[in-house]
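Exercise 7.
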Amino acid sequence: MKKIIIGSVLTLAGTWIVGFIFIAAVLFVPNMSSWDGTRVWYAIFGGGPYEADLKQSMALGLPFAIGVLMFAAGIVILAIEFFRPESNRERMPSPVRPTPSQGNGGPKLPTFPADQPRAKEEDIPTMKEVQS
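Solution. The predicted structure, written as tokens, is:
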């Protein structure tokens, strides 16, 4: 349960960070006068590490990458937790069929003790013998 909460928080925080960076970039795009490539990606990442004019970009590449990594880590944690079988789960006991003497209201079926030997092929009646 603890890991599910951690994964959910990481996924939600990463989604919020990336989403708000996209919203900020879309709101910033109309104010840009020059760009290279796609306007939204240029507003987020900028032109490069040696760009002299950072005023045309918000330079939010690092927070964007951290948000994507948080989202991915949260999804991985959630996937592992949801698809991994519980290791501490005890083996479920097999259901006990009630004996006819208990009177469960169902049909009275004979019980077969485990130490009784099984019937051989010669002992099993054929369909003709059963019908006659």
